[in-house]
Amino acid sequence: MPSVTVSTNAPDEESELRNLEELVQAVDLAEIEHAYQTLELEEARIEVDISDCVGNGSKMEARMEKLLTLQNSIAAMSTQLAPMQSTINATAVNADVISKQVRFLDQKRDTLEHALTTIKDTEILKTRIAELLTAMEARDIDAAAKLVHEYAMTSPETLDSPFIRFAAPSSGSTEARSPRDIVSAATKELVERVSFMFDAAIESNNTREIGRCFRLFPLLGEELRGLDRYSDFLCSAIAEKSRFTGEVHGNIYALRITRLFEAIAAVIDNHFPLVEKHYGTGRMLRIIQRLQMEGARRACMVLDFFEEERQVKRRLAEIQHSSMQDASVSRPEDKCDFKEITSILAESVLIMRQIAAFDRFMRSRAASEEQALDDRTREQVYLSPDAITKHFPLSAQPQVDAGKFTMGLVAQTPLTLRSEWLTETYVTMETYFIETSVAKAMALDDTDSLLGWNVPVSSDSGLTSRNAAKLAIQQTSSCVGDVFFVAKTALEHAIAIQQPMAVETIAQSVIGTMNAKFLSFIEHNALEKWPSSSRAGQGGSGDSGWRIPGVGSSEAQATALTLQASSQRRILTALNNLDLSCSYLQKTVDGLRAKIRVEWTGQNDRALESIDTLAAFSAKFTHAKQRSLDNFGALVLRPWMRTILQQSYRDMKYVLTDEEFNDMQNDNLFQQRFVIKFRDLTEQLSPRLTSGNFKSALDIAISSLTQDWERAIRQSKFNMLGGIMFEKDVREIRRYLEQESGTSLRSKFARLAQMADALAVETNADKRHIFDTPAVDINSLSETDIKNILSNRIDIA
Which residues contact 419 (CB under 8 A, 6 or more apart)? Predict the structure, then answer.
């Protein structure tokens, strides 16, 4: 401790000496004063330290005296403890010797106890062997099997001990048999007896005896033999349960497949607890695999009969031959039995649906069993490749990967190969069904027989009173519902069999057929030239700039009127068919997506992608509908709206006197005429168009109106009163059209509203606020346009 103190304080002392030398060498008065103050502080600190040391001196002396006393006591105690230390050392040596002797005795005791236990186990084993021999002589199979199982549970140490020879019963025979030989011979004999009893019980259909024998196999160490024999029994039971007892009509092969798979499912669920109880968790998997192969074998037999009895090869050849013929030369439906092909197709779908459902069931039962097995046990429980290969035809055996399993099931079975053939057959027939059914739907389309189209659409207001309040008009024809029913049915078939390839192929077939036959047909009708009539000599008003079908009621015009009505029906029905097709297609796609997500338990991405291609195809219907609406607008709506505007403005002007202004305020002929004629348009088109098409037609008509109205205003003259009246006309017509269409028309009337504001200014000075008003719409008038409009005011220079 003193050395530590010195080493710690030495640097401080050296520092103080250096500081003292610096103080002594100070010359400047300020430095000398600072040094003096420092010395005074240091002197005060030293005085305090000295006072503390003097005050604590008595305490330090007392502590030193106490330490001296303790030192003397410790020396005395050390002298007294020396003999005791010698005694302790001698005792430790004796204790070590005793400990070694105790450990030796413990080892001898353990050896003796182990020997006694072995002798006891040997005595028990001797008793069991004696009981086993007695049970064998008495043919008590259950007791003997239980004793064999208990022998198998005996520890290996007992069986390998030198006392094991005493376990063999004494006999007068010169040949001494070991317990192993005795138990081995008894086990072999018991296995033969139980196997014979099992076969006899199956032959006599003694289910109680069958269950008894099945429980004995694991006691004899023959688990796999018991599982295999029980599997054979269950396979024979399946054949009986899946047999029809009465006469069956209709889809007999689909019913047979269904009955077969239901029988297998019932067997698995009913025998699952029994197998798990006596054989352990996971052992049912071997029976499941065996039933899987048996079900595949019997299902293939049903499919062979199905192919032969339904003459599937012949129907496929007919389809192939018909597809090679030119459609203009011979029609496929004339060469193929469409009804028979449809029947085969429906039954094929039912069969594949049952196969898919059976596969899902087997996977659900096998998955949990497979997870309960470790790798070593799994190799023992799984069927061997030879046991799997023997279920395949000889020609197919070299290509079979019999050692591959998926989720506890055999990956490739005879039904796997047969299902591929059935899927190809289904796709071929489904494609033919789609093409033929769509062709028939188009041929049987009832457009020409739709009711309510006897009176043609006309822009002549003279026909309005006669055409109003007609009977309900059939807006769409039968082909839309028929075609989409065919498409939906085919796609639901493909989804039901749960084959991604089939869904993709059928979706492409639906798209191709609808595009080539259905869409092109209705779009061609929708784009057909609108029928027109002569402008003069038809009994219509001579000032009408456009007229759709005939005006007049002479007998000579009746035929032309009928032809025009028929042509209009074909065009408008096609337009409605396009609108309905867009709606049907979207609903079909949504329904199919939901169906896939609900019914498909595995990966469904590929199937959903196939349905997405169908959704993308709907854009073609939308574009075709828009082209048809644009064509209808150009040929019908725009001329009609131009006629309405012309007839509404007949004998009208916007250069008004005060009297004329007051008369128009009280009786505005323009607004009255426009409302009457536009109502005539809506009353004729509303029952003939679907709601979607009617809304689009109104949008086109209103857009056409604003363009023609703007053009007419640019060519008209105004005074202030006329501008005010025009502003009122624009406001009232916009309000009326918004009420009719149910939408805001602010953007469409923006330019007309600006024109009205410009034409209604009172003085030349009021023009400035129009130019200063910021544009609120992209279609707003430019400053140049406003100046040109203002030039139409005759009362403003």
Answer: 352, 355
Residue 5's pLDDT is what? 36
Within a 10 A sphere around the Cβ of 277, how many other Cβ atoms?
A: 9
What would the DSSP string read from start to end of 403-439?
T-EETTEES--HHHHHHHHHHHHHHHHHHHHHHHHHH
- Compute CA distances 717 → 643, 646, 791, whole Å: 21, 16, 9
Backbone angles phi, psi at 222, to 5 degrees: -115, 60
pTM, 2 dp: 0.72
pLDDT band, residue 264 (cuts 50/70/90):
very high
**Separation CA 483–CA 295 (nearest Å):** 38
The residues, any chain, with a CB within 8 Å of residue 157's CB and separated by 6 or more, are 118
Token reading at 257: 């497949």
Place of tokens 């109104």: 698
Alpha-carbon separation of residue 707 from 616, 693, 715, 782, 792 (angstroms): 35, 21, 13, 16, 18
Each residue of 227-242: pLDDT tens digit? 888 888 888 888 777 7
Cβ(202)–Cβ(233) below 8 Å: yes
What is the Cα–Cα distance from 487 to 485, expressed in whole angstroms? Answer: 5
Strand, coil or helix: what is 718?
strand
CA dihedral over 707, 708, 711, 716, signed as positive or negative: negative
Question: Would the pLDDT of 649 be above 60?
Answer: yes
Is residue 388 within 8 Å of residue 293, measured between CB atoms?
A: yes
Q: Classify residue 726 as exposed, middle or buried by CB count within 10 Å of its CB (0-12, 13-18, 19+).
A: buried
Contact 720, 793 (CB under 8 A): yes
* Spatial contact of 263 and 256, defined as CB atoms under 8 Å apart: no
List the one residue out of 566, 512, 228 whose CA is nearest residue 383.
Answer: 228
Report the pLDDT value the prediction gives residue 622, as an integer from 0 to 100: 92
Q: Which residues pair with 718 in a beta bridge?
A: 654, 793
Residue carrying the six token digits 């606020």 = 769
Task: Report how far residue 287's alpha carbon sits from residue 217's, in angstroms, rounded to the nearest whole number.
Answer: 15
Report the b/e string of 337-361 with b at 16+ CB within 10 A.
ebeebeebbbbbbbbbbbbbbbbeb
Distance CA 345, CA 641 (A): 54
Cα–Cα distance measured from residue 409 to residue 293, given in angstroms and rounded to the nearest whole number: 10
- Strand pairing partners for 188? none
pLDDT for 346 beyond 80: yes
Whether 165 shows a pLDDT value over 70: the answer reads no
Q: What is the DSSP string of 373-407?
A: --HHHHHHHSPPHHHHHTTS-TTTGGG--TT-EET
**For residues 652, 653, 654 and 657, what is the CA-based torsion angle, rounded to 10 degrees?**
-100
SS3 133: helix
Structure confidence at residue 631 (pLDDT): 93
Q: Which residues pair with 410 in a beta bridge?
A: 405
The token duo for 299 is: 């299902």
For tokens 């023609």, the residue is 708
Question: What end-to-end distance do the CA atoms of the chain give, in Å?
Answer: 119
Longest dimension (CA), the chain: 157
Beta bridge partners of 654: 718
Residue 518 is given by DSSP the state I
Q: Is the pLDDT of residue 328 over 60?
A: no
With beta carbons less than 8 A apart as the criterion, state whether 759 and 723 touch.
yes
Under the banding of pLDDT at 50, 70 and 90, the label for residue 779 is low
C-alpha–C-alpha distance, residues 191 and 200, integer Å: 14
Q: How far apart are CA 783 and CA 797, in angstroms?
A: 17
Element (H, E) at 409: strand 409-410
DSSP state of 246: S
Token digits of residue 663: 């008369």
Among 533, 384, 508, smallest CA distance to 458 is for: 533
Whether the pLDDT of residue 381 is over 50: the answer is yes
Whole-Å CA distances, 104 to 100, 151, 395: 6, 35, 74
CB contact set of 46 (below 8 Å; sequence gap of 6+): none
